[in-house]
Amino acid sequence: MKKEMIKTSKNDDSKKNNLTEGSIIKSIIFLTIPIIIGNLLQSMYQITDAFWVGKLGADAVASVSISFPINFFIIALVGGIGLAGGVFVSQYKGKKDQEKVDHVTGQTLTMAIFFSIIFSIIGYIFTPNIINFFGAEPAVYNNAVSFLRISFLGMVFIFGYAVYQSLARAVGDAKTPVYITLFTVLLNFALDPLFIYGWKFIPPMGVGGAAMATLFTQALAFFIGIFILSNGKKGIHIRTKHMKPDFKLMKKIIFLGIPVSIEQTSRSVGMILMTSIVAGFGTIVLASYGIGGQMIMLVIIPALSLSIANSTLVGHNIGAGKIERAEKIAKLSTLLGFIILTGIGILMFIFAKQIIGVFIHDNIDVINEGSRYLRIMCLSFGLVGIQMSILGTLRGSGNASTTLKITVTTIVVQILSAFILAKYVLHDELGVYVSMPISTIVGATLALIVFYRGKWKNKRLIESPKVKERIKEERDIADVE
Q1: Using CA atoms, how far apart are residues 151 and 261, in angstroms rounded to an integer?
Q2: Cα–Cα–Cα angle for 57, 73, 309, nearest 5°?
Q3: What pLDDT is stored for residue 354 in this prediction?
Q4: Whole-Å CA distances, 38 to 7, 181, 326, 334, 461
Q5: Structural domain range at position 197
Q6: Contacts from 463-466 at CB under 8 Å and sequence distance 24+?
């Protein structure tokens, strides 16, 4: 009787999370809305830090602005493993191979934890050298070193939880990460002022206190995620045997993950290089760029969420051999990305000053410069929606090398145009600001060309009987003709 109840429960869960049948728009909404909420909540870590640190002044904000792209770089460097594992998991879930889902999850976590610890140690040791690379002003240097070193101490938790989110979403469980993130973000908001300003037995840590609060809450989120993966109630059930190194599978995950890591790393390298260009224009511009950049990351979240949902849906349907459905999903999510991001861009243009003013209260120069930067960016958001949705399609089908090429090209265009325009044409920070719309046009155009050529549909990561039958039918038809 007990076995029958467990079996029924599993069947109900499978039916509930079946993304290969029914309405496409419902499937997209089912995944995208929780992912949007989760990503918005995740970004609240940076926004909460910016809010409380902003009360310490422009120098403190500039310290966090320098540290953010470096943190992103380390996470991106190892992050390809989590994203690659998620692609395999989504395709095996579509194929209904639960043992492979669990096994890939265990191998992905093992590699992720190992590599993140190594990079944490290296990053902590060389933090002063990294900050010196940016040529930060003396008033910014010490706070930046403090913030970044504490961030490196918690890198395994930050990255480990990001991997948990990727794997949970890959099996269609987008809601659980939302609840975890909501709880830890609220906790982070309460802990930030305690660690920054001190309270009773807690000494004031200044900018470093914001990083300490994040470290504590992300560690809590990571351990909750591991517990959920191990209890088997949310579509994945990892056990000790799944953590034992399977070098053959690890090689496959790494092979797919390397282009993804390089893609994500190239984004962070682009952020670092752009930040180094901006730093040459002084603290006011650097603080404005940092706040404006965080706002841009916030409003791009719907496009990022659609991209993640698209990757999961495309992976499930390709794993199930439903290529035509995968293509329909991709087209609809791309259209939604363009419409939603264009609408958000218009709102950001209208309320730019009010938005920037929330995060810096007593410096009109930063408010004016930040809103100027934001207004130049936001009118091209619709093209960002197109590009990111298509990249999600390509990633879900296993075409990681193609997404890498598009991303790197876009970033190179942005950096070169920023450097040339800022240094030799416009001779001020405006050159940096207009480089993003220029690169966005290039990236969206390349993504559309690759998508409509259709070669992405021929990529195979796992064996799928339905796909084999379709390929055989196509060959038989070709022989007859």
Answers
A1: 20
A2: 105
A3: 84
A4: 30, 7, 24, 20, 28
A5: 22-476
A6: 464/91, 464/95, 464/318, 464/319, 464/320, 464/321, 465/321, 466/320, 466/321, 466/322
Residue with the two structure tokens 């904000």: 61
- Let me know if residue 116 belongs to a domain: yes
Residue 38 to residue 36: CA distance in whole angstroms? 5
Number of domain units in the chain = 1
pLDDT band at 180 (very low <50, low <70, confident <90, very high): very high
Whole-number Å distance between alpha carbons of 9 and 19 = 18
- For residue 408, what are its two tokens? 């790197």
Q: Is 314 exposed, middle or buried (0-12, 13-18, 19+ CB in 10 A)?
A: buried
Tell me the C-alpha distance between 102 and 237, whole Å: 6
Higher pLDDT pick, 474 / 50:
50
Confidence of residue 475 (pLDDT cuts 50, 70, 90): very low
CA dist., res. 296 & res. 418, Å (int) = 17
Residue 8 belongs to some domain of the structure: no
Residue 384 contacts by C-beta under 8 Å, 6 or more apart in sequence? 300, 303, 341, 440, 444
- pTM for this predicted structure: 0.73
- Give the C-alpha separation, 172 to 86, whole Å: 11
**CA-to-CA distance for 273 and 92, rounded, in angstroms?**
38
- Give the span between the Cα atoms of 435 and 441, in whole angstroms: 10
Residue 2: the pLDDT is: 41
Residue 333 CB-density burial (10 A; 0-12 exposed, 13-18 middle, 19+ buried): buried
Q: Which tokens is 429 given?
A: 């920070």
Counting every residue written for the chain, the total comes to 481
Task: Please state the rounded mean pLDDT for residues 287-314.
Answer: 81
Location of structure tokens 């002063």: 128
Cβ-based neighbour number of residue 474 at 10 Å: 10
- Would you call 7 helix, strand, or coil by DSSP? helix
Structure tokens at 307: 């991209």
Residue 6 lies in a domain: no
Cα-Cα-Cα-Cα torsion 29, 34, 36, 39, nearest 10 degrees, comes to: -160
**What is the sign, positive or negative, of the torsion defined by CA atoms of 359, 364, 370, 374?**
positive
With bands split at pLDDT 50, 70 and 90, how would you rate the model's confidence at 136?
Answer: low
Q: How far is residue 336's CA from residue 395's CA, in Å, rounded to a whole number? A: 18
Question: Above 90 in pLDDT, residue 449?
Answer: yes
Residue 297 near residue 73 (C-beta atoms within 8 A): no
The letter for the amino acid at 206 is G
Question: Does residue 9 sit within a domain?
Answer: no
Which DSSP symbol is given to 203?
Answer: P
**Chain-centre distance of CA 472, in angstroms?**
38
